[in-house]
């Protein structure tokens, strides 16, 4: 992580909180919405969770298939039921644009049941409270930032403008995210991927280093190198900062050990060191490098006291190191 120079952020559930809400009231007695809410129980995507919350769904539907990066599908009473992106559900471009104009900056969740017209639901998401501050910190330290999201263009554009991130892409499939990651890597960039969704898992696994929030789907958590806790984005910056300090401490300790051996070994070979002196000198060397390394712990504890959100979950690596 100390080598990272570029950071790719997913939007929904990563830069935003995983607690979006539907815009406006819905009819809980509407049979199609009830079915869609039950279908949404099969997904942990934040937009699906908004529908579950709005409909109060409790019993999931059976035989649900998930199309990566698109949505969910099943059959009810011989009719196909889909929930996911507007294009996946067959919404027209005109309908999508009309809804986005009506609710600027919102994300759209679509429902398609049998021969009925496609329904579009507007969902709003809140940015993490410290997202802008963390982005400013990362930019000040020279990191190149990008948003790679499967969300709609207006929604991603609004998020990017609010955070001051100039490079962003919307409506990206999992393969498109992988392609962008590989393009950066071919240019020699060391990329940190931060994401939470099922469609982020391939990019998380392929990045130089990857992080997921604790609210991420299990597959994304398994593909990431580490999971961070809390509702803030600060742990991302703290992880990068700590990794740089850790590498610096390792290099310092190697120099301490090298200098010690350059001085001590010739003296010992010459016979000027008694066994007691050697034991004391060796212990002093070990104490020196240990004390230098402990500075990381003391510094990190002070940072944790200043911000309770900087606690990291266990490493969940699937990449061997």
Secondary structure blueprint with pairings:
Elements: E1 6-9, H1 11-15, E2 21-22, H2 31-40, H3 46-55, E3 65-67, E4 71-76, E5 79-84, H4 93-102, E6 107-113, E7 119-124, H5 131-140, E8 144-148, H6 153-163, E9 167-169, H7 174-186, E10 191-194, H8 201-206, E11 209-213, H9 218-223, E12 226-228, H10 234-269, H11 275-306, E13 312-315
Helix pairs in contact: 2-3, 10-11
Give a summary of the structure in a few sentences.
The protein is an alpha/beta fold. Helices cover 46% and strands 18% of the residues.
Would you mind describing this structure in some detail?
This protein is an alpha/beta fold. Among the domains are: 21-124, Calcium-transporting ATPase, cytoplasmic domain N; 236-310. 46% of the residues lie in helices and 18% in strands. It has helices at residues 11-15, 31-40, 46-55, 93-102, 131-140, 153-163, 174-186, 201-206, 218-223, 234-269, 275-306, and strands at 6-9, 21-22, 65-67, 71-76, 79-84, 107-113, 119-124, 144-148, 167-169, 191-194, 209-213, 226-228, 312-315. Strands 9-8-1-10-11-12-13 form a seven-stranded mixed sheet, sandwiched between helices. α10 (234-269) runs antiparallel to α11 (275-306).
Radius of gyration: 25 Å
Helix content: 40-55%
Helix and strand pattern: EHEHHEEEHEEHEHEHEHEHEHHE
What are the low-pLDDT stretches, counting only 5+ consecutive residues below 50?
306-321
CATH-derived topology of the domain at 21-124: Calcium-transporting ATPase, cytoplasmic domain N
CATH top level assignment of the domain at 21-124:
Alpha Beta
Strand order of the largest sheet: 9-8-1-10-11-12-13
Find the structural class using helix and strand composition: alpha/beta
- The coarse overall form would be elongated
The overall pLDDT average reads 87
Strand fraction: 15-25%
Largest sheet: 7 strands, mixed
> Can you identify the CATH superfamily of the domain at 21-124?
Calcium-transporting ATPase, cytoplasmic domain N
Give the beta-strand count: 13
CATH architecture of the domain at 21-124: 3-Layer(aba) Sandwich
The helix count comes to 11
Distance between the terminal alpha carbons, to the nearest Å?
Answer: 12 Å
